[in-house]
From TrEMBL:
Domain Type II secretion system protein GspF residues, every copy: 68-188
Keyword tags: Cell membrane, Membrane, Transmembrane, Transmembrane helix
Primary location group: membrane
Locations listed in the record: Cell membrane
Membrane-topology annotation of the record: Multi-pass membrane protein
Protein name: Type II secretion system F family protein
Chain coiled-coil ranges: none
Segments crossing the lipid bilayer: 12-37, 176-194, 200-220
């Protein structure tokens, strides 16, 4: 079915647990988990798409700079680079690719097209720096190829920094996942010792109070850890590309 993602599995899993434990609470929890899981998966997909756009913009700037050094006109170099990179057919860059291709092929306002394209999607902020370089080159006759090379280098440095940070945060992420699984391990251990944790937690007032309290503490711990990790990543993800604009030549 279109529009149904992996988060839909939460509902049947909750239904199975409800039948096994003879309690409606797992089914309710599964229904609540569907939108929450879907939102988390969408955020993860959006972050991955933004990272792919950063890489694609860096590659585009490098390709245009190489074509300019080979003596090709700027509009032609941009149009050919967009087509060669497959932007018009890419799910992440289709709208951006069509916009840039239209400006390049029909001698439109390329700096304005680049600025507009940079606002379409997260991760395309490098196009704003490319627009500034293009504008200065057109107005002042400065070297566009060297400026675009600097944009590409800045974007690649940003991607490298993000990858390094992600590697450093792998340990805290693993620790958070392990801690989140400890309650499930406790239930298995209790069942192995002869107790009946589902019956106590789902069918007695004291057990339900413990379940709610434990669930809230678990959520608070995961939310706190996730906030710390996202805060560390945000400094890299939101960093603006800074490039040294080419100097204008005296008219």
């Amino acid at each position: 079915m279109p529009g149904v993602g992996p988060e839909a599995l939460c509902l049947p899993v909750g239904a199975v647990l409800a039948l096994v434990t003879r309690s409606p609470l797992p089914l309710v929890a599964g229904a609540v988990a569907v939108p929450l899981t879907g939102r988390a998966l969408r955020r993860r997909s959006e972050r991955a798409a933004a990272e792919r756009r950063v890489t694609a913009v860096a590659a585009l700037c490098g390709a245009v700079a190489a074509d300019l050094r080979a003596g090709r006109p700027p509009h032609t170099a941009l149009g050919d680079a967009v087509e060669a990179a497959g932007w018009p057919a890419s799910p992440d860059l289709a709208e951006t690719g069509r916009l840039l291709l239209s400006a390049a092929r029909f001698s439109g306002d390329v700096p304005e097209a680049l600025r507009e394209a940079s606002r379409l999607h997260e991760g395309a902020h490098g196009l704003l720096a490319a627009a500034a370089c293009w504008q200065v080159a057109v107005d002042g006759g400065a070297g566009l190829a060297a400026a675009l090379d600097r944009v590409a280098a800045a974007l690649r440095a940003e991607a490298d920094q993000r990858d390094d940070l992600r590697a450093q945060l792998a340990g805290p992420r693993s620790t958070a996942v392990l801690l989140s699984l400890l309650p499930a391990f406790g239930l298995v251990l209790g069942a192995g010792l002869g107790a009946d944790p589902p019956k106590i937690l789902l069918h007695t007032p004291v057990g339900m109070a413990c379940l709610v309290t434990g669930g809230l503490l678990e959520w608070a711990g995961l939310a706190w850890t996730t906030r710390i990790i996202r805060g560390a990543e945000g400094g890299t993800a939101k960093r603006t590309v800074a490039v040294e604009a080419p100097e204008r030549r005296p008219s």
